[in-house]
Amino acid sequence: MNHIKTFSSIILLFIVISISACTNQNNDSEINAKKTIIDEINRLNSLNSNESIKTGDFLKLEGLLSKDENALDEINEIKVMVKYEEYYHVYHGLGFLTDYIKSGKKTLCPGHSLSHYYVFIRHNETDLANDNFKEAKDVFQKWIPLAKAYAANNKILNFDNSVLRIQNDINNIYSGNITGSDEEIEWLSSDGSICV
Length: 196
Fold this sequence. Notes:
mainly alpha
């Protein structure tokens, strides 16, 4: 009887150790994969900072993220920005992609989406523009309380004015005023972009 208990205990200990080892290997593998992806994004950022980035430079990153539809959608947008030499917006897109890889969550940022809406409209990329507008309006109400808390914690002034200005952009687009000035695009992608 004692032999059975001892044998059972040994088997149970073996199972626990095996599961633990597998879990550690999976965690190490996931960490290494994320590091490889982030290293590739950093390489692309370096090319972008020299304004020498090309759409073909994304092949490795697309391969690394081939099973992640959210990441591939972001990469597709970034590649279109590269096509039109919108390097400032490429930089932001790569930053959002990095945050997504690190956290596994999409960032809520209607200002960023609206700035891309205007840039895509400017280049007659209507489908991508509409996708960004839909994203901006879909996340706007959920974004407000999260961004308000972030603004309060970080002593960001004039948050209510930011909300009104973003709402005004959404309303203008609904009413048919689909173009944004360079100043508005800049504001949306910087001051208006409290991203949470």
